[in-house]
Task: structure prediction
Amino acid sequence: MLLNSSAPALVTGATGFVGSAVARALLARGQAVRVLVRPGSNRSNLAGLPVELAEGDLTDPASLARAVAGCRHVFHVAADYRIWVPDPAAMLRANVDGTTALMLAAAEAGAERIVYCSSVAALGLTKDGGPADETTPVSEASVVGIYKKSKYRAEQAVLALVRERGLPAVIVNPAAPIGPRDIKPTPTGKMIADAASGRMPAYVDTGLNVVHVDDVAQGHLLALAHGRIGERYILGGENLTLAQVLGMVAAQVGRRPPRIKLAREVLWPLALACEGLAALTGIEPLVTRDHLRMARKLMFFSSAKAEAELGYRPRPAAAAIADAITWFRAHGKVPQ
Result:
């Protein structure tokens, strides 16, 4: 699957964290890039990039048809990524209905290949805490939280379109990306910034797979070139406990890592109170019951399939953490 064609590649979510990395990776290969942007969105991640702007929204099918027109390749990266939302239905409309609408628009426009950015949130976890892979069993009932449910449903919708309509889609499942241009920031990025700033005196230990956002972007391009239609590929890095991640952050900034490890049960009443306050104010809660439920299992994953079939090669987690902190410092989110 060749890049560097005269036809643009469409990237959704390019104003965001992973999407901007994908757009930059394509541009570095000499590929013309068109990006779907919402009217009034923060476009600082696109500053100075020679991209074509197509204004639209995942909830507006007509705008999607305009955006995909003439595109050979489509990278669907856009998603509402939040652990807590005041209106879960809105997240489902964007992440599930919007994904389906874009897939149908791309197929109608004659796109030759689609790379859909799902998430490891849509995959199963092992019972013993060992690394899960693309074959680990999963059901919607086992998926915790509205974000993860939305990604699970969206992925299932894409797979159904592959089976039933021959949609030329490859699915990638990034783990927990960190690195530059995390402008919101993402929940993982916020954790890194808080820890680097000394704003995390205690923690609930769990496990996660940390990967550099630019490696995730390269994984998208590899999936376009080498991925098999209808297959899923985990794009991860290193499996680390949260204590290990916080230790790496502390080493980077010359601080002591937090030493107070809290039991989840202790935080349950606080989570209830935070959710109640959020329901009244609309302000994102500090901790929720879904946060605590997710922390019960180690979210460890294997990228062996992507490494074998795509040639995917992620860098060490310490390098990803260093780049994230450097960017956060440069943008005033972490003290110098």
Q: What stands out?
A: The chain has a mean pLDDT of 93.
